[in-house]
Design goal:
The complex is a heterodimer. Chain A folds into four domains: 350 residues, Alpha-Beta Plaits, CATH 3.30.70.20; 235 residues, 3-Layer(aba) Sandwich (Rossmann fold), CATH 3.40.50; 152 residues, Dimethylsulfoxide Reductase, domain 2, CATH 3.40.228; 139 residues, Barwin-like endoglucanases. In chain A, 28% of the residues lie in helices and 17% in strands. A six-stranded mixed beta barrel of chain A has the order 21-26-23-25-24-27. A five-stranded parallel beta sheet of chain A has the order 9-8-16-17-18, with helices on both faces. Chain A starts with 15 loop residues before the first strand and ends with a helix. Chain B is an all-alpha fold. Helices cover 43% and strands 1% of the residues of chain B. In chain B, helix 10 packs across helix 12 and helix 11 runs parallel beside helix 12. The longest helix of chain B has 23 residues. Classes of the chains: A alpha/beta, B mainly alpha. At the A-B interface, strand 2 and helix 34 of A face helix 5 and strand 1 of B. Strand 2 of chain A pairs antiparallel with strand 1 of chain B, so a sheet runs across the interface.
Amino acid sequence: MKRIWHHPEEPRTSKRYWRSTAELEQRSEFLKTSGIEFPAGDTLSAEEQENSRREFLKVMGAATGLMGLGMASCRRPIFNILPYTDHVEWVIPGKPLLYATAMPRAGGATPLVVTTYEGRPTHLQGNALHALGGGIDTFAQASILDLYDPERSQKPMMSGKVADWERANAVIKKVVAESKKDQGAGLAVIVGEVKSPTLSRLLGDLKKAYPQALISRYEALSSGSAALAHGLVFGNGIQPVYHLGKAKRILSLDCDFLGLDPIAGDHIKEFAKHRSQNKSGAEMNRLYALENRFTLTGGMADHRKPLAASLIPVAAAFIAAELGESSAKALAATAPGSLTDWLKPAIADLKENAGASLVLAGSRYGKEVHALVAAINSALGAFGKTVDLVQGDADAAASAFSEVAAAVASGKVKTLVSLTPSNILFDAPDASSFGKSIRDKKVAVIHLGSSVNLTARKAGLHLPAAHYLESWGDVRAADGTYSVVQPMIQPLYDGVNEIEVILALLDKKVLGPVAAEEPAKAGAAATGAPVVSSATAYDAVRETFGSLVGGIKEDIWNVTLRDGFLKGSAYTVAQAIVNSSALSGLMADAKAAAAPDAGAYEVVLTPSSSLWDGRYAGNAWLQEAPDPVTKLTWDNAAWLGTKTFRDLGLKEGQMVTVSVGGAELTLPAIEAPGHVTHSISISLGYGQKNLGYVGSDTKGKGRGFDAYSLRKGESFVLTGATLTATSDVYELAITQEHNTMEGRALYREATLEEFNKPEYTSQTGMDSHIPPNISFYKGQVGVRSETNPAGFDYQNEHQWGMTIDLSKCLGCTACVVACQSENNIPVVGKDQVRKGRIMQWIRMDRYFATNEWGEGKADSDDVNVDPTPEQLEGAEMVMQPVACQQCESAPCETVCPVNATVHTEDGLNAMAYNRCIGTRYCANNCPYTARRFNWFDYNKRPLDELYWGPLSTPEKTGMRESVKLQKNPNVTVRMRGVIEKCTYCVQRLEAAKIQQKQKQRDSKNFRIPTDSVKVACQQACPVEAIEFGDLADPKSSINKMKASPRSYEILKYIGTRPRTSYLARLRNPNPKMPGADKIAVWSAKQI
Amino acid sequence: MGNFFPRWTNWLPLKLAIALAFIGAGVSMGIAYYFTPKYTRVGYEPTQPVPFSHKIHAGELGLDCRYCHSFVEVSGHANVPTNQTCFNCHGAGKGNIKSASPKLEKVMKAQETGQPVPWVKLHKVPDYAYFNHSVHINRGVSCASCHGKINEMEVVRHDQTLSMGWCLDCHRNPENNLRPLDQITNLNYQAKDLDRAAFYKDLLAAGTPAGDIAEVILGGKPSYDVKGVEDLMAIAEKKFGKDVSQLEVGSQLKKHWQIQPPESCAACHR
């Protein structure tokens, strides 16, 4: 009997949750595809049609015939076993070996633990021993793929042509000789913002050797304004370290500290800890956010106000003035009334919690904003409590990038050495004129980089950079804790790192593989010249380490390598007070800004959630990871507020032209609820050409659109822009309407007071009237007992379960990428994403929510009224990761004709890929739409030739050798025609059980130690929102989470009995704020 | 119209049907026999690049399996030894045993060049089957259960089918293959060589109640009180005869070591 489940319609008089405005307004383009697991009726491109089905069959027939003739397939293939000739220390074939290291980054190192198999790193996780360790973000998680990127830079290049190391070394020799002669005049060195003590020490040596040289730090997204402001108001080298864990009230001035604008200080899990409470009366922190577009921080905020980025300095001034800072009064007076109404109760709340409150400002705002925020935090008594001031390292790289740019323009620079991970000819302020002066003044550029990007191609000499997993280095974390970066593998392509290049500039090293050094040495010996003793990065790091701990002590060195950091090496806390005269000086220069309007739009240039500043353009995992807010993959777009979008009469993906300050950019527009009107947000880093398939598409035309081209100065907020629509429509791959779930009360949230009422989540939505008929799908359910003999065995088996805390979940997609890395999930390419075939096992559902529409309020009876654009500007944003829910009574299992998906003893919904024949019945029957189908051999075929089948270009067919190295050896690489889905990392569970059995031997002690196994998404989650464990172990933390009154199962009423449950989100509104009564009004209305 | 078909064609359909039935039966039987791992795998005996004799090393010399396959107790893979292991005995300046033998030429060359000896893989399960040696070795399954009596093989031969059905036979009835942990690498082990008294003493010493042991022997609740080894010996002898039987050992170990081999797909397929 066929039964179609009619999900009860959600009463539209309550808060509405929706994925896109098309869904909210039930527009035809949404209804057309909604609820269809595999949207049919795609049209093939002309190219794809050429290789039609008939063609394919012809070729296949011929191929089969040939195969038969040769009978080659009847021979038993010979497989060889190749053991090591000499045993390798610590390596046990088949067992992972873990090493601690750190990822060098601008904001401070990310401490990592690397999983390696037989010498090849396969997966990254945070280092839990480190004070700032824990979950890691998407970029750190995905950075391992960069190591194996087949399109990364592999050879030195000279003016765009491949060269060898000998010639590269000759160029460097010449630079060294000239610099020695001229005391470094004409030499400019640009390094990244990474705080590496060895690099700093060597830069000091460089400055000593070549005193005239200009040394600067530059990364595209690191504005120096914060450091500059802190230097002025606190004193030189003093920087704040923020303690999110101690802050009860946080106000963010467009500081996406939970997402793309990390601050120096506590790991963000410390913030999230205060969001997850279960007992009534427990204390929660409260977050206020002001921002022009939705960020992850804005989504987490209890109170969020969309505010144009141009008005952020005014908001900062108003807060400072309210707290008694007289120099800010002039600017504060220009604050509009709607802003001051919102800010006043917030400021009162901050004041009430003085000593436990914190104000943060976006790192790319001007120095006056940072100076104001320092004054605000001082007035709030934050210093020594929620903010510590520390004394950082002295830095020889003292010149600003603008000085270098000016020197280049005036022809003073003869050689420019770029060691920064940024792409200076692409992303520098006013990159085109910078590039022009380099060309005109014939500046010789030496570039070190990991991709063959614009700077690499234009440089006189490009050197391939070693990945941080292949080279020695060292780095400080945000709090100053020292870590040694240790290599996991020999450089795959003989790359070098910036320490080695500086050593070469100091004439201490010959670059390149060891073999390249030999002829150099031999040549030197033959001519009687002194042999260059080639220093190594390892020696340089050891020397720095020695200076830190007072002589190289092997035991401390070994412990540092083992733990991944040096104990007690954090910065010391400094005493400082705000220099108010410096502040007034800064405020005197601050100009009042007008709110943007239809004649003068503002353009906000933002980091990309996938490419950061553009450096990850070649990383396929990141390109395909949907942007957390817009769910856009493989591209960037102009985010426009609903009002702007509709006033211009735009369609999704319609091209618009943004002109500002003489520059012009045409790019697709998307409607972004929660976005300020007359403001445009564009993420940076896209639009790079000729980076290979992943970075720039097959024809090298570039993915996305280059927003750096709009930037003519230092600022990231451009004002006075105009916006015009064109008639073209661009094809965007947005996943927000893919794999939708139907049903009621999927997402739940309430206030702290409300959730402890007995009728809260357990009785919300449909859960309150589930019929006694448990399930349509019969099977093994519940705990085995005398009354339920068919239940799961809790005595003799583990029983796995998961909870996801929506109070903590930011929606950052780190779990999505971690899952991809752990489970060998393929990337499918933009075209396939458009067809709804994305393979990621975890789907990060992002809902917007509104509780106001039309003239009336939430309880208006007229359900057909849609929210106005102004009401959509105030939309809320919530996140819900959904993967396979491991239903005990799984609808997928009953429909599989070949038993490829069945239940295990420990409650997993297992997937035997080798048995799957690809009927896709299971995916069609999954109410959570958590199953993915391999439409093509994504691992084997090049993504731009998927439709060619066996005709794909032979040299591009098959998995790249380097990519093979990344694969997890414990997970099958799936082929075409197979369904796949989350298995709770079954390989980790089996490994944990086996490890316990190795210990158990002849005893009965089969249960693994409590909470000793972690799944990949749980390990990656930076806020510890995911809890996983053994339900049959009474001590396990999963049982505590499941007992929370906030725990609920999505679509519980259809009786699937999922093992994954969610903890409803908590909100902590301030009742005095405007609109506070509308936050979390939902649960009461749903019963 | 004359008879278009000659008379003999009358029987043709029947003849064809019978012939087809025979052919069909023949083909099915042929596939059932020749296309199974039992035929295609068992007895596979490739020539190895180095004529290493397990018969001499593991049989006559009595080297323990784990001397060379050193990680079998901790890793999923039973590693093939590195050259260094060979050189512990054969290396010049070390054991120096037959270090000049031409049979060792390839090993010597591997040591010089660093290029490993390309041993031919014999026991191969499909890539999607994740077999783990350590969990079997640590829990009472011997090397011999899957690899046969390697200590009697001059050239190693594929002994068992290693098919999925064969795996499941044991996973469903593990008692047929379980043995005490000190006998795991004893390839000549037979249950009847065990000392019954010592076996039960060991079980009792591990803290297993005598009543539970008796319950397993009898296949149900014991009808009378059992005190110690003597009582157990008596009932075991009554049940299994004079010699210790495999079933007797296996069923005790299965029960008291809580051996519950997984039978779901996820145990081996990920």
